[in-house]
Amino acid sequence: MGTAATFGSNQPADVSFAWQLSGKEDSIYNTPTVTYTFRSPGEKILTLIVNRDTARMAVKRIHIFPPPILTSTPAPTAPAPPPIPHLPIKKVEPAVPSITAEEFRFMLQQVIYGNKQFTDFSEYLCNNIQTPVIINEKTMMPFNQFCLQIRGKKRLSIDQVNITRDKSGCITALNIQYNKKKFIGLF
After folding, report:
1. Which residues is 178 bridged to in the sheet?
2. Which residues contact 153 (CB under 8 A, 6 or more apart)?
3. Strands (E), 99-187
4. CA separation for the pair 76, 120 (Å, rounded)
5. pLDDT, tens digit, for every residue of 106-145?
6. 138 DSSP assignment
């Protein structure tokens, strides 16, 4: 009660409308929408006639309810549920993507040809680009330095890669065997 209510028709705009609320025979509205504010409870009847054709009349029964009666005594409330104990939250480490030694070897070949760089390996090394690399069982250097050393050396052939991983799957060490390619030429 006392709240405005808007009613509308889904007819095209080029038609005529005649809205009328029961008890207000002198108030006819000719717009596609109409707004009424109901001040008293009871049943109201709203009619809509389209293009002055009573065969195209729509009737809507509206029930207006009186406002709720407020009481001064508060309603009883249910007791609050007991608090839920908080369980410790396990920190979930992101999964380390899996890569085989052969796939790693292929990616290193791509470093030689300039198609990859040491940062492309960081997810397999758990972002430790300083992972130790043992080269031909003689020399040891950080992975990023190894990649810089082989970049552009197209005469290198990486023959074998052995990978050491920790329990979470991170690569912690590499053992790489490579040779210089030999060219057979006439000169």
Report:
1. 158
2. 112
3. 132-135, 139-142, 156-165, 171-180
4. 65
5. 999 999 999 999 999 989 999 999 999 999 989 899 999 9
6. T
